Amino acid sequence: MLVRKIYGGASDNRTCICPVGEVTSPTASLEAQVEHFKALGDITRLQLALIVKQSAPSPVCACNFPEAFGMSQLTISHHLGKLVKAGVLERQKRGKCAYFTLNPDFDQNLLANVTLGVAMNVNDTATGTTILFACRQNAGRSQIAAALAKQLAPKGVTILSAGSEPADAVHPVVVEALAELGLQPDSQPKPLDPAQVKTSDWVVTMGCGEACPFFPGVHYQDWKIDDPSDRSLEEVRSIIDQIRIRVQELLDTVSQG
Prior knowledge:
Elements: E1 2-6, E2 15-19, H1 28-40, H2 43-55, E3 60-61, H3 65-69, H4 73-85, E4 89-94, E5 97-102, E6 129-135, H5 141-152, E7 157-163, H6 172-180, H7 194-199, E8 202-206, E9 219-222, H8 233-255
Parallel strand pairs: 6-7, 6-8, 8-9
Antiparallel strand pairs: 1-2, 3-5, 4-5
């Protein structure tokens, strides 16, 4: 297409012939990018996409987002749904949990120059340490270790717990034994998320080592601790004492750098 531009008045007949190219209908790829831009125009959705990108290639469990953003699960699910619909993210169901990765057709260059404004794990300080305790059900050993570590750890240490096959609830005898010490379980049992493993500084496994993914740079320990499931209260008290010693040793190691 050529555009003719006329200069001057009646006595000036100069013209400029300027090529501007042909305007064609949007391609499917261009239309997809428009949808990507629209979805990422919301700050929460942009940050969600950045967290998933940061954790790649490991999928991120939806259960981790509410704590990181300080929002309800319903609100986070709404934003994740928008990103999936726009083709930015892909959703995979694993049991009761949904895991998210970047859609392989999504152009990651759209996120290349954007700085992540929220961390996957919320630490007290930017240079804090994250310790993840993991067992099979996240209903006994990892809950005890996390509860004790939260009591003993200095400021700046974030404590997490998870399970490779999370139960529906923490073992009642564990809840009772911790209550005697003025403690309570870390949380409801949660799935062991590869993204959390990747962003932790230390990972302690107790009976689920084979199910825990390995990432370079993460420190790993495997503790041989009896499972408190179906144990008596007296036996669980003994298990707590064993874990307390291990937790204190770990915290001493962490504090020494």
